[in-house]
């Protein structure tokens, strides 16, 4: 166990979108446009190929200093316990399930939600969550040993990002053509919204698809002073164009208080998309040769061909020492 000067937890959001009960619930509350458009509520936002077990395994393997791994679910069980006991005997107790109803205690009128931005807005409300924590989507993995200083240095959070022009981002969004009758709501768009929400006019952090370091007190203090911004974001059942990215909000607030360390994304993060066999082969080979990257995102791997999924997961299992 690696000693740290304070406890650090991990928070992971996960949903089994193939679960018939969850599909039925989404269909009950969703509108036609929400189920049709991937950026709002299409199936791609909820399906998986079992990435969650690799995400958790990577945290146990490459971040042994973590105190607790909180897994946020919607009345579901990831069924990873036998897998964890096989590969990480005695460590499955570090993983704790947290239901949406716990995050939304006192605000149950907004449930159910099928929207990661909404859930991320209130994940800091997990009872017993450590002041310092890292947040991951279930398709994020660690692929090399990490230390606490990869996430926090003293009371400063490490942010893997770059500054980006806010006016230029707004221009790009304005020029973007509509798809299915609306402007596609992008990852970058949610960052722009966070900057706008707190009065930034010129720049924001262009975040990557990697673990994000956060502090409970920053969210608690801000939302105590601005409860309307918490409610407007947490209450959206499906994604809405006005929603902001809570990680971006945290980093901008931290930067204002000089409690942030900005670190380049280059050479740190591996990113994989379902783009065809040649793409997959070349990227996996590059991944095998990588020596500096610590994080990996396998985006929409369920949309890749079966042979490409196998190629990616075989590499990941080797990297995690599961073979």
First-residue to last-residue Cα separation: 23 Å
What average pLDDT do the residues reach?
Answer: 90
Structural class: alpha/beta
Count every helix, treating DSSP H or I runs of 4 or more residues as helices: 13
CATH architecture call: Alpha-Beta Complex
Helical residue percent band: 25-40%
Shape: globular
Number of domains: 1
Question: Which segments are poorly predicted (pLDDT under 50) over 5 or more consecutive residues?
Answer: none
The sequence of SSEs as H and E is EHHHEHEHHEEEEHHEEHHHEEHEH
Biggest sheet strand line-up = 3-2-1-4-9
Report the count of strand segments: 12
Largest sheet: 5 strands, mixed
Percent in strands: 15-25%
Keywords:
Spore Coat Polysaccharide Biosynthesis Protein SpsA, Chain A, 5-stranded mixed sheet, alpha/beta, 323 residues, 4-stranded mixed sheet
Structure description:
Helices cover 38% and strands 18% of the residues. Helix 7 (166-175) packs across helix 8 (187-197). The model has no long low-confidence stretch (mean pLDDT 90). With 323 residues, it is of the alpha/beta class. It has a single domain, classed as Spore Coat Polysaccharide Biosynthesis Protein SpsA, Chain A (Alpha-Beta Complex). It has a 5-stranded mixed beta sheet, sandwiched between helices. Strands 6, 7, 8 and 10 form a 4-stranded mixed beta sheet that branches. A 3-stranded mixed beta sheet has the order 5-12-11. It is globular. Helix 12 links the parallel strand 11 (269-272) and strand 12 (295-298).
């Amino acid at each position: 166990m690696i000693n740290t000067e304070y406890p650090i937890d991990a928070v992971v959001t996960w949903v089994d979108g193939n679960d018939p009960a969850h599909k039925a619930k989404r269909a009950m509350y969703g509108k036609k446009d929400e189920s049709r458009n991937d950026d709002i509520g299409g199936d791609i936002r909820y399906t998986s190929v079992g990435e969650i077990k690799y995400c958790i395994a990577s945290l146990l393997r490459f971040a042994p200093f973590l105190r607790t791994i909180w897994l946020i679910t919607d009345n579901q069980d990831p069924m990873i316990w036998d897998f964890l006991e096989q590969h990480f005997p005695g460590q499955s107790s570090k993983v704790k399930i947290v239901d949406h109803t716990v995050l939304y205690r006192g605000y149950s009128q907004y449930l159910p939600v099928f929207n990661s931005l909404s859930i991320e807005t209130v994940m800091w409300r997990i009872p017993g969550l450590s002041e310092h924590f890292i947040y991951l989507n279930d398709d994020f993995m660690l692929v090399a040993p990490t230390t606490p200083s990869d996430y926090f240095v003293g009371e400063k959070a490490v942010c893997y990002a770059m500054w980006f022009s806010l006016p230029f981002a707004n221009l790009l969004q304005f020029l973007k053509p509509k798809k299915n009758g609306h402007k596609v709501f992008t990852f970058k768009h949610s960052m722009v919204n966070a900057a706008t929400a707190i009065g930034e006019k010129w720049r924001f952090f262009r975040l990557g698809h990697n673990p994000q370091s956060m502090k409970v007190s920053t969210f608690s203090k801000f939302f105590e002073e601005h409860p309307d911004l918490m409610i407007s974001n947490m209450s959206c059942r499906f994604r809405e164009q006005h929603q902001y990215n809570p990680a971006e909000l945290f980093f901008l607030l931290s930067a204002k208080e000089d409690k942030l360390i900005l670190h380049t994304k280059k050479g740190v993060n591996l990113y994989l998309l379902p783009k065809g066999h040649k793409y997959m082969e070349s990227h996996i080979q590059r991944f095998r040769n990588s020596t500096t990257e610590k994080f990996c995102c396998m985006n929409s791997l369920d949309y890749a061909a079966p042979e490409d999924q196998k190629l990616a997961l075989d590499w990941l299992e080797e990297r995690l020492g599961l073979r």
